[in-house]
Amino acid sequence: MPFLSLTPQGLMNAPSTVWRFQGLCRNLAFGVICLLLAAAASAQNATPTGLPDAASERLESSANDEHSDPVTRFLSDKGLLDTRPVTELASQMRDKASDLASDLVISAMDFLGVPYRRGGQSKDAGFDCSGFTRHVFERSIGMVLPRRAAEQASMPGMMSVNKAELKPGDLVFFNTLRHTFSHVGIYIGDNKFIHSPRAGGSVRIEDMRLAYWQQRFDGARRVPTLSKSPLNTSAQVDSAP
After folding, report:
1. How many Cβ atoms are within 10 Å of 120's Cβ, its own excluded?
2. 25 classed as catalytic
3. In the chain, count of helices (H) and strands (E)?
4. 105 backbone φψ class: left, alpha, beta (φ>0; ψ -120 to 50)
5. Average pLDDT for residues 26-51, to the nearest whole number?
């Protein structure tokens, strides 16, 4: 902007010069105000930018809490709420069944050498064949079998098992008195079973591949459940060999 001249001509032009100066000041002031407004608007817009993320985090946390409420967390921590996959649970149940069968076989082994006694049902008194299997099943898995061998074979709920599909813990039956299911033992694996044989003998392990047992094999039964049987059986003794 030209300086104000003190010459007569400059004094004549003074009002015009002053007007231009004032206009320039107004423009500068307007520009500064615009800049300040723009800065304020930018600051105001910057503040809420973090809000959506924070709100999203709160919503996500709330959603997680719905699936992890105190009761659910407590049950899960105490092992009362099983959140494992179904396949893992099924595998655990199979392992449990296998473990119980192993316990049954181990329990039967505890009586090796106990003498045979007709009508016997205890270690102290001795065992006949069905008294032995009955005692082992009740002692190891809490299941009460009928008293006689034939009754054990026909017990409701028992599963018939092919010889090629035998598993430890299965009951194996033989015809040793010229009638079916007259003798019983417990399969322990590897084609062997444990039983109380006959008078003068004691609890021992036999090989089912021997001709005597092969010729007299009547079949096998498997207990489908491990719950205690509610059957009321008679006190009749088994006429085992």
Report:
1. 19
2. no
3. 8, 8
4. alpha
5. 56
Nearest-angstrom CA–CA distance, 27 and 173 = 114
For this structure, is 195 an active site residue? yes
Q: What is the pLDDT of residue 59?
A: 46
Predicted pLDDT at 67:
46
Gap between the Cα atoms of 19 and 192, Å rounded: 122
Contact predicate 174/205, CB 8 Å:
no
179 is catalytic: no
Catalytic choice (25, 67, 179, 195): 195
* Residue of 67, 129, 135, 179 marked catalytic: 129
Candidate list 67, 135, 179, 183, residue with the active-site label? 183
Query: Would you place residue 71 in the very low, low, confident or very high pLDDT band (cuts 50, 70, 90)?
Result: low
Global confidence as pTM? 0.57
Dihedral through CA 61, CA 64, CA 69, CA 70, nearest 10?
-70
More confident residue, 46 or 99: 99
Averaged pLDDT score across all residues of the chain? 74
| Cα–chain center distance at 197 | 41
